[in-house]
User: Fold this.
Amino acid sequence: MKSIKIFCPGSVANISCGFDILGLCLDNVGDEMIVTQTKKKGIELEICGDYIVTKDINKNAASVSALALLKSFKHIDFGFHISVNKKIKPGSGIGSSAASSAGSVFAINELLKRPFTNKELIPFAAEGEYACTNSYHADNITAVLLGGITLVRSNKEFDVVKLKTPLQLFVTIIHPQVEIKTSDSRILVQRKIEISKLTEQASNLGAFISALYNEDYDMISRCIKDIVVEPYRSEIIPEFNNLKKIALESGSIGFGISGSGPSMFSLSKGPKIANDVKINLEKHLEKKNIKYKSYVSMVNDTGIKII
Amino acid sequence: MKSIKIFCPGSVANISCGFDILGLCLDNVGDEMIVTQTKKKGIELEICGDYIVTKDINKNAASVSALALLKSFKHIDFGFHISVNKKIKPGSGIGSSAASSAGSVFAINELLKRPFTNKELIPFAAEGEYACTNSYHADNITAVLLGGITLVRSNKEFDVVKLKTPLQLFVTIIHPQVEIKTSDSRILVQRKIEISKLTEQASNLGAFISALYNEDYDMISRCIKDIVVEPYRSEIIPEFNNLKKIALESGSIGFGISGSGPSMFSLSKGPKIANDVKINLEKHLEKKNIKYKSYVSMVNDTGIKII
Assistant:
């Protein structure tokens, strides 16, 4: 039977200034997935790897999005077996569910010889995200399906755009091994804000996007701010303020919470600084006896890929 | 004595999705100003033209910004005579005070052989705006001083950037002859908003900026939305909803309030549609017996210029 093996990358949502809007695709952090066409109709699911996720076909992100995709075809007299090799910890803030949601539909679409573009797969992948978080948000799945740095204009219409990625932009991820559920973390931000804060947050987002096109790293640095969500969410992330200070002192051009945390991201110009940041963040967490995972990654401009 | 004559263009602030952030410089709508170096120290002010504005040196936008600029020099043993030929109606919503605030400092800087870049003139021009509106906002003056479409990241640090202007972008301005004071109009927007509205408004701004760089007119069209301010401000602008409908039916890719109104702007792809929009808006206001002024303008990429 036809079979495909893919790399399903992790991703950073929000990037501080773009809450529920921006996403960035990582390069060397992600799950693997093998999808095989089967004679039997429907979806079969197998989970292996470092982390346990639900095997319930109607709850697992990979199978839910796959089922949504299959529903869009009138007649299909075969099925698919999805084997998820989970390497991204669920609840880590680097898009574990998005990797699964997007991965399965990408793989099935490939096996069917691409009836859909990657962009057209977003609504199906969003069903997988919904199964995990009870809300339609396309920031992570868009980054994973299109690659690079992406913007979601509308989560209702899935109107998305891939932005330009400055070539020297590198990401450091530091993931303290504590779990925060995305759904819990979202409760923290159900607040009203002043119009002046809207203007401040939106102007940082606008200037950030312009800076991506102009490859203006200084401007990027001034824009990586979150005055709306970070003040609340950072309270439940261990050592957030100290880690931010260390990152910026190590040459980071921007530091914040990845998605709903607890992972944090740092952006740097070039891999050397990104690595310095990683080493200094690690040292601090070791001093504090907090277990962590950490990565340095370039921005993955391809997104999900066949391996 | 040395003398200079300049064109001080009108401008559109906000562009719906960028409240207090975006500005767009107009091409064939504006004041004229003659600035002459004088032996006498200080600033002299003369007002002529179609509209009356204050001649009080400490209140007029042109003289206040000029005085702020002169203060930045340690020794200056001469002065300037500023003659403002006012063609933009104050309170029209197309940057009448910004044209004056920016014009005088631009002209004096030219006469002094440019000790400052145009960007460096923004803090001085902002003093003129402050004198008229009691707030520091740089959206109009930035558009006028840099030309094109501009973004203000911070009104505190005057951190601004000139964006890319799609070549086929044309503007229609329709100005019903009713007066709304900017300061009154700002009161209407002192409200708190839901975080979800922040996301919606900011994502439109972000996508708009990306669309400028990609020259994606369809995306521009989907982004010219204002869910925060327009619902309130439009209530005090005569025929707003009907005019918006007419503009969009005439081929406009976006219609909204210019600055704090009552002028309205429409964006179109190409001059023909911009002119069709103008004609159809005029017809409607004539039917309703509302006096108006109207213009079609390309985006002025130069900003203020010597004439």
Observations:
- Residues 65 and 128 of chain B are 5 Å apart (CA to CA).
